[in-house]
Design a protein that fits this description.
The protein is mainly α and 381 residues long. It has helices spanning 9-22, 27-41, 47-59, 64-107, 111-139, 144-160, 165-179, 189-193, 196-202, 208-222, 230-241, 247-259, 267-297, 303-306, 310-338, 342-357, 363-379.
């Protein structure tokens, strides 16, 4: 039986409100901070509960850090704990992103702001490239089948300039069938997702908010991997399919996600604001985070029983590998658009070199330096 909590719900909510306000260094550092603060230091959460939360967050689609926070809120305080912790963790970055969106819309035509985002955008390409390299080596490793699926997804994304959801799901099924062949014939886990894809696109409406809700709900439901995994999916939708943003605006949206605390996925609020103002930001954020909330809370009571099933794990491993491949392909697509001159190329490669050489170099410092370089190149060069 679960031991009574050694902390109040208010204390836990305040902790995640603070982490969501000051956590500028990306998902890996955020989940590491939760372990240090809540398991090792305060001893509010047991090691076993933390590991179960990490496993569930990795298995389910959506942003890793946000899902882990939601699960930790659920451990002792159930639905209320999960709900309040999730809101506390996301709301600070949401407010900052909306404020930046308002500023961007009001001042977007000014040369100095364009210069700042020129520098930041090129650094972001380098940061994403280095993050993809680390994620690839960790996720794929020496797995030959994994490299095949990774390569197919990367090449397809680079050529089509959009993440192919069907290819990601098929990769999960292939990996499952080869790594853990089923003992009997039945409807596979992967196929259970596929029928939902066309259904999401069948809801017709002229309302831009309704279209935003449908698109971002699909993003929150079907995008696996780290927070960066949503980048190729968003690019294919908001730029290529719907034309809601220009390519430069999309790169600026990714840059905003990098310079604000909390999950990278909060970039959806910035995109929503550019498309339909404050209402668009609210709809995009809610539609993206609601699925990951439900996919964390609903299976939580049953996860101990089914989460370690070899077939389930293999299917999700295959999806994750393909998602990482899509990120790699998206780096190529974004780099083609952003690295348009020699200074941009030099900033991006310098960013990669510094991150490779200095493992603990804060990404925020690189983004700040790139912003200054953008201004200098605009007004001095």
């Amino acid at each position: 039986m679960k031991q009574p909590a050694a902390y109040s719900l208010g204390e836990l909510v305040r902790y995640f409100l603070r982490l969501g306000t000051l956590g500028f260094v990306g998902p890996p550092a955020l989940v590491s901070a939760m372990h240090h603060d809540l398991v090792v230091d305060r001893q509010w959460i047991t090691e076993a509960d933390y590991r179960e939360g990490m496993a569930l967050a990795q298995l389910a689609p959506g942003p890793l850090a946000a899902q882990l926070a939601i699960y930790l809120g659920y451990v002792h305080y159930g639905i209320w704990g999960a709900t309040l912790v999730g809101i506390a963790f996301v709301i600070p970055s949401f407010i900052m992103v909306v404020a930046l969106g308002w500023t961007y819309v009001q001042l977007g035509g000014l040369p100095w702001m364009q210069a700042i985002f020129y520098g930041i955008g090129t650094a972001v390409i380098g940061i994403i490239a280095m993050g993809t390299y680390k994620l690839t080596t960790k996720t794929v490793g020496n797995d030959r089948l994994g490299w095949v699926l990774f390569g197919l997804s990367a090449v397809a994304t680079a050529l089509m300039e959009s993440e192919l959801l069907w290819l990601v799901l098929v990769s999960g099924v292939i990996y499952w069938l080869i790594k853990t062949p089923p003992q009997f014939t039945r409807t596979g886990i992967g196929s259970s997702f596929a029928p939902l894809l066309p259904q999401l696109g069948d809801f017709g409406s002229d309302s831009i908010l309704w279209k935003l809700a449908l698109f971002f709900a699909k993003a929150g439901t079907f995008v696996f991997g780290s927070g960066l995994a949503i980048v190729p999916f968003l690019y294919g939708g908001v730029v290529k399919e719907y034309g809601w943003l220009t390519e430069q605006q999309f790169l600026d949206a990714v840059a905003v996600a990098m310079i604000t605390p909390g999950p990278v996925v909060i970039t959806v609020a910035f995109i929503g604001y550019l498309v339909a103002g404050f209402s668009g930001a609210c709809v995009a954020a809610l539609a993206t985070f609601l699925p990951c909330y439900l996919l964390t809370v609903l299976p939580a009571p049953y996860f101990k029983r089914w989460g370690k099933h070899p077939g389930v794990k293999a299917f999700v491993d295959g999806i994750t590998i393909a998602a990482v491949g899509a990120i790699a392909g998206a780096v190529v697509v974004l780099a083609r658009r952003q690295l348009v001159d020699l200074p941009a190329v030099l900033i991006a490669f310098t960013t990669v070199g510094l991150l490779y050489r200095f493992k603990k170099l804060p990404e925020l410092s690189l983004i700040g330096g790139a912003a200054v370089l953008g201004l200098l190149l605009r007004y001095v060069a």
